[in-house]
Amino acid sequence: xxxxxxxxxxxxxxxxxxxxxxVYADNTMITNESPDPKTxxxxxxxxxxPSYTVxxxxxxxxxxxxTVSAKDICIEKxxxxxxxxxxxQAQNETSGLKVSAGADKGSxxxxxxITKDSDSIGxxxxxxxxxxxxxxxxxxxxxxxxxxxxSGTYNGTITFTVSVEWN
Length: 167
Description:
This protein is mostly beta strands.
């Protein structure tokens, strides 16, 4: 029995050294007939797509606060994620921080202001500026900036722009 195991082992070793060995790597063929040492190279790659989550509340009441946030930021090195207050409009006004009580030109209008960290901000103001891996929030406070004369429900919209830009 011991003699059969030694014979089988010897036979396996002889076959391993006499069989041609071929390794393929990106159109490179190496055989046992190639000069020593036998090497080949292969490119390795992986693509990470940019991603982020920016949360902007659907509504806010003047006299209250709204938090705009950016998290899970995966963007290119050297780039910045920016959130900008890019526009504001009342129903019957073309621009400005205003709310109106109707869509007609004669409807009452109220002016308001937005502050972030006690600083007034307006249209074209940068709300958030952050880089990859760094979450950010902006707490915005909304207050009337004038007196009101007429009762009613006043409405308007604010537009935010989210962009990824080179530093």
